[in-house]
């Protein structure tokens, strides 16, 4: 395994392979997938300590090759989504159109309508099986606002309101947050 690598998302200098403990607490989130580092579970990362740029080893290696665009998909989005190594906005962040959380790392972006998705949200499967339900669940876009007398869609696992994309079983009207 290479101890240094040049990455398209950070062309200022080479990234060095190191242990999370070698960053003196500076490495808290991956600059790629925007997920936290989990000391003890995955200890290796690629980093530039000067810039405070850190990547999980798998994010660094996965994105070394050119990431392919996500083809249009009726459940996720109707246009082709282009991969970006940084948000398309001057603010340096974006709001994910799938989970509604703020993102700062690798993402998928639609230049036509400003649809944005975290790298991992963009790769969510269209259909999945869950231990929480006996049938397959289909990824669906956000539900339309309900009439006041009906109420919002509720997750059948955590019992909280669903305001964004969801997985649904049409046979049973079972809804679940993607997470």
From TrEMBL:
InterPro entries: C1-like_sf (IPR046349), DC1 (IPR004146). It comes from the Eukaryota. Keywords: Repeat. Residues 10-60, 76-121, 132-177 form the DC1 domain. Coiled coil: none annotated. SUPFAM superfamilies: Cysteine-rich domain. Pfam families: C1_2. This is DC1 domain-containing protein. It comes from Nymphaea colorata (pocket water lily).
């Amino acid at each position: 395994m290479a101890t240094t690598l040049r990455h398209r998302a950070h062309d200022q200098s080479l990234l060095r392979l190191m242990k999370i403990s070698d960053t003196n607490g500076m490495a808290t989130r991956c600059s790629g997938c925007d997920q936290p580092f989990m000391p003890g579970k995955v200890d290796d990362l690629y980093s530039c300590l000067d810039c405070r740029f850190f990547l999980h080893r798998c994010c660094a290696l996965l994105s070394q090759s050119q990431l392919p665009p996500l083809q249009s998909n009726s459940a996720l989005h109707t246009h082709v989504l282009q991969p970006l190594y940084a948000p398309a906005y001057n603010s340096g962040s974006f709001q994910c159109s799938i989970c509604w959380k703020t993102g700062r790392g690798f993402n998928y972006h639609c230049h036509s309508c400003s649809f944005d998705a975290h790298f991992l949200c963009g790769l969510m499967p269209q259909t999945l099986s869950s231990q929480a339900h006996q049938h397959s669940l289909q990824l669906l876009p956000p539900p339309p606002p309900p009439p006041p007398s009906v109420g919002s869609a509720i997750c059948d696992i955590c019992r909280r309101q669903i305001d964004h994309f969801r997985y649904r079983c049409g046979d049973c009207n079972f809804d679940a947050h993607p997470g």
